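Take a protein:
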Amino acid sequence: MTALLEIISDQFAPALGLKSGRISVMLRSPLENQSNRLYDVWAGDRHWIAKEYIKPEELESAPRREHKTLCLLAPLDIAPQPVFYEPAVGPIVIYEYMEGQMWDRRHASPADLQKLAEVWLKLNAAPADWASRGHERSLHIIEQELQQGIQNYLDWAKQMFEPATTAAEMCLEILASRHAVIQELSAYPSVPCFGRGDPRFANVIQRPNGQLGLVDWEDSGLRDPAKEAADIVSHPNQEDLLSWDEWQVFIAPYLAAHSKIDPRVGVRLQRYLAIFPIFWLMIIIRRGIQLASANRLAGWMSNGIPANLRLQRYLARALAWPKMDYKDTLETLR
């Protein structure tokens, strides 16, 4: 925190014409899976957020993407207003605090989802010229990574927990069955648009004026709009909160708008929904192995529910595809 205080005192305060002695800084409690540090910065009744990036592989790219995005979206009033960023000073971006209530685990109403679609289509139209984090990785590379990750899980299960080999082998079978889907997706052209890259409800802010705002833009950039929609629907922050039928209030206008210039966006969305459950299975399983190795697996939760239930839900989604109703499959797994 010392480095951050020096930046605020020596760079941020003078830039805004403030006296550094009148500024207070307090670390915010981190959310689950948060990969940065957030600080409340106050000067009288003025309130900002200082975001410090701490992942070694993203110390340059993440703050740059975040600041470029905040500048790009500043006229649209759907993101915090940027205030300070000096790459030579450090991996820190400071922006105005956005008043409102974080959605997080909110069961979004139809009215909420309609507003969310409006905001998402507005940001999709922003004229960005940079790629989102990970956009350069091909589906074939992702397939290889998933294959290796599941094989690692199977190897671990054979040594440490034999009953888990059944689930690991099932995951390998599912991934093998998706090879044709991945080839098909890779062959489809897409019309990239500006997207978030991290669409969890924890980044949605219900503002006092009734409008929605979005925070946390470090992963944003150009990506396939079908991939963006699949990410929104399947993200572990909210995948258990809404049924596929409930999601249609968001999906229908989203696809209708994009289909005007991207006729296959709906087809690609359906195909991405065959892959995202396997992706999230691997993310959560990898975390579980880490916790088991540290003897910390007891009571493990994933975004508000027991992690084992979250894993069952993703496995059921993967097994039931292309059906979106996976309740019967989930009951069989339990």
Remarks:
- The chain has eleven helices and twelve strands.
- The chain has a mean pLDDT of 94.
